[in-house]
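lol ok so funny story. i was supposed to be doing the assay writeup but got distracted and ended up predicting the structure for this chain instead. priorities right. anyway since i did it might as well share w the group, maybe its usefull for someone
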Amino acid sequence: MLLSIPLAGVIATGGSVVYSDAAMRRLRAAGLVYLQAGLATLKRRVAAAPPRGIACEPGDSFDSIFAERSELYRQQADVRIVVDGLDVEQVVQRIVDALDT
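and the output, tada:
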């Protein structure tokens, strides 16, 4: 098994949590599964959500933030699951499969 502790819960973080070393250490201690959505998928999801800001530097574009954060999450993750085109049940099954190997 990849992770040595039982799965106890799910924490859905904000995208900018990856910039916090302390937060990432705590998340990695429990095992970090990165649900990787593509740029088009995330743009659709953000457009459908209630209006809110995205933490970024002035002049950053959604595309540049996506590229930067995606790479950081890839580097930190114990497991990476590509979720584009999957429904909730399929995503859950892929997580279970990945953690059960």
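The first strand starts at residue 33 and ends at 36. The chain is about 45% helix and 10% strand.
back to the writeup now i swear
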